[in-house]
Amino acid sequence: MKKDKTKTSIENNVIKYKIVVDAFGGDNAPLEIIEGAILAVQKHEDLQVILCGDEKKIKDILNGREERVEIVHASEVISNCDQPTEAIRHKKDSSLVKAFDILKERDDVIGLVSAGSTGAVLAGAIMKIGRIKGISRPALGPILPTKKDSDVIIIDSGANIDCKPINLLHFAVMGSAYYSIIYNKPNPRVALLSNGAEESKGNELVKEAFPLLKQAPINFIGNREGNDFMSGDVDVMVTDGFPGNALLKGTEGAVKAVVSILKGSIKKGFISKIGAILMRRVFKDIKNRVDVQGKHAGSPLLGCKKLVVKNHGVCKRKNISASIDQTILLYNEKLNEKIEKAVNEVSAKLKDIEVSTLEKAEK
């Protein structure tokens, strides 16, 4: 009897990475989430994904494509309308809570990917997984393009609304470690978002955080204004969640508005339409450059004991697949170990700062 070489090859595959996916989190769940997970499985022969959600619906979408896919049934879904902490506590059979339970309880699972409620993902990460030793608060660090064909991270972009100076210090350290891994760039340039470049500018939070970042073992380049963060001269922009989220959403809205205005202008005349046809390749390149949601993976919740990647609610399959790629990369590059090491270095450096400054930062 002829041996099935394909089957033998599959059986000989060693599962190196297991990642749990909240299959019912996000505006396009479960279809786009599941298809994204399948794309990742097809790309990585040593990957197994664990899909959490309604088992029947998941199997209907998989339609027999269950190789290296584990299904964990969950009868509930946490929505954006749910109060995050209460939802994590009481919706115990939800796809997100089940995913967090798996991440917490199974040592062989390296990370979690979800496009669900940001608040619920943050609450679940803190309540179920916990923080890296020395980190005051986890933070989100989404990526945006710059005009110099590079990218910039905004940290924090909405996970922490009311921050203390020590939080911004930890955001800077985590953002620097994350950027250096993603872009293979040692000592990325870290700036503090303010209303002026001078050290004396900013609100009380910025003024108190400045000397902490200045003493930290990072490449701190000082204060920068909102119009500087996409200049290409900054790699990591540090701020608290309220202005960070406003900066992120405002930028996304401005890009959409410019694209809409451009399309409207092109349609107004015959000559402009001909010009648009001739410029089609250029417009496509521009679209690919500014299409943040389409190009990038999700944002890791930096500072958690295990890897948690949060996708935009409207993400599609390619974003989910990219987030799984990202989780594998961050795991292999030991992001959490590097963050913990950097925080320990920060603690040592802070001993050289006046005691009154440190005490004031932690109040």
Order of helices and strands: HEHEHEHHEHEEEHEHEEHHHHEEHHH
Largest sheet: number of strands, sense, barrel closure: 7 strands, mixed
Q: Which regions have little confidence, pLDDT < 50, spanning 5+ residues?
A: 1-11
Number of helices: 15
What does this structure look like?
The protein has 363 residues and is an alpha/beta fold. The protein folds into 2 domains: 5-129 and 297-332, Isopropylmalate Dehydrogenase; 139-293 and 340-362, Isopropylmalate Dehydrogenase (3-Layer(aba) Sandwich). Helices cover 49% and strands 15% of the residues. The protein is built from 15 helices and 12 strands. It has helices at 5-12, 31-43, 55-62, 84-90, 95-105, 118-129, 165-182, 204-215, 241-266, 270-278, 280-290, 292-295, 317-332, 335-350, 355-362; strands spanning 17-22, 47-53, 69-73, 109-114, 139-140, 143-145, 151-155, 189-193, 219-224, 236-238, 299-302, 307-310. The strands form 2 sheets. A 7-stranded mixed sheet has the order 3-2-1-4-12-11-5, with helices on both faces. Strands 6-7-10-8-9 form a 5-stranded mixed sheet. A hairpin with a 5-residue loop joins strand 6 and strand 7 (151-155). Helix 7 packs across helix 8 (204-215). The longest helix has 26 residues, at 241-266. The chain is globular and about 60 Å long. Residues 1-11 have low confidence and may be disordered.
